[in-house]
Design brief:
Length: 325
């Protein structure tokens, strides 16, 4: 179980993380979602005491810095290639294992587990990003910890790798571990996560289960196709529905249950060719929840002429000006 309370971090004028409090339960995968620059990495670093800031995080009741053998309790993957460039992957893990009193037999076990058994004697600098992520997970799992904190572990993985990561994290959660994982891949999160912590510009937007998030931030609408759509619209509106017309002439009915829509059509003798429910995806919910809190907002290409030459300047983060809030 992870308990985070009042996490806070400021860089000069930018509040990167604003009084975030949340719990991450064991036995489920908890996804950590937010647009670029919303403060996910900073939050994870604060949780582990790697950044100065306010608030407190307890891992099964203990601060990370007070855990006697951290690798045995909390496995972390915060950056894609945190490896020694000249040591082989196996030697890298051997060094960590001996420093943390983990039996060396565990090294081959985790290399096998993440699918790197055949390349374990190679140096990680030759690894692809996807292989490096697998090695990062092997490192996080080395001490067989009950808690995992993973920052964007699917970055750089191909579709098979993403599928694999999803299955492995679900399995690890099923074993009773506490899994806190950040990702931009919302569709992946929908398949992988049971619970969510969603932030925007460092502020808490939502903390709860995925279905509630989708329900709270989106609407389920009823789709109606009918040759008498025009006549049916005022009937629906009289019952309190909000009706819009879709691109193919279908009615999109909000604020009315599908059963009542069917009942009204039957009562009015209106022929229906389709009556279905449309539920929003996690992606729709995410866009609706974080739309106004994006850190970097691009110009809408449809509303502006193309620039004469490609823009040369990329957005640069501000200089570090930590206030140790
Ligand atoms: N060293 C730093 N100095 C100044 N500002 C910083 C620094 N690191 C992060 N920030 C700012 O803090 C905010 C949060 O950044 P952070 O990297 O935690 O977001 P993120 O959600 O992990 O982003 P991404 O998804 O793009 O990795 C951003 O506004 C960022 O510009």
């Amino acid at each position: 179980m992870i308990t985070a309370r009042g996490l806070h971090k400021r860089y000069k004028k930018t509040v990167a993380v604003n009084e975030l409090s949340f719990d991450v339960r064991p036995g489920v995968v908890t996804g950590f979602l937010g647009p670029n620059g919303s403060g996910k990495s900073t939050t994870m670093r604060l949780m582990l005491g790697l950044d100065h800031g306010g608030g407190e995080t307890l891992f099964d009741g203990t601060k990370f810095g007070d855990i006697r053998r951290p690798m045995n309790d909390v496995g972390t993957l915060l950056e894609a290639k945190p490896f020694h460039p000249t040591r082989s992957a196996r030697n890298h893990l051997r060094m960590l294992a001996s420093a943390n009193r983990i039996p060396t037999s565990r090294i081959d076990e985790v290399m096998e587990y993440v699918g790197l058994a055949t390349v374990k004697r190679k140096k990680p600098k030759g690894y692809s990003l996807g292989m490096a992520q697998r090695l990062g997970l092997a490192q996080a799992l080395l001490g067989d910890p009950g808690i995992l904190l993973l920052d964007e572990p699917t970055n750089g993985l191909d579709p098979h790798g993403i599928h694999w990561m999803r299955d492995i994290l679900k399995r690890l959660a099923y074993e009773g571990r506490t899994i806190f994982v950040s990702s931009h891949l919302l569709s992946e999160m929908q398949l992988m996560a049971d619970e969510l912590v969603v932030i925007g510009k460092g502020n808490m937007i939502f903390n709860g289960d995925v279905d509630t998030f989708v329900r709270e931030f989106t609407q389920t609408t009823v789709i109606v196709r009918s040759p008498a759509a025009e006549a049916f619209t005022p009937v629906l509106e009289r019952e309190g529905a909000t009706v819009t017309t879709g691109a193919k002439g279908e009615l999109i009915v909000a604020d009315l249950k599908i059963d009542l829509v069917g009942h009204l059509a039957f009562n009015e003798g209106i022929e229906l060719r389709e009556l279905s429910e449309h539920s929003a995806s996690l992606e729709d919910a995410f866009m609706s929840a974080t739309g106004s809190s994006e850190e970097f907002v691009a110009i809408d290409p449809e509303k502006t002429a193309a620039p004469a030459a490609p823009a040369a300047q990329a957005a640069q983060p501000a200089q570090d000006g930590t206030d140790n809030a």
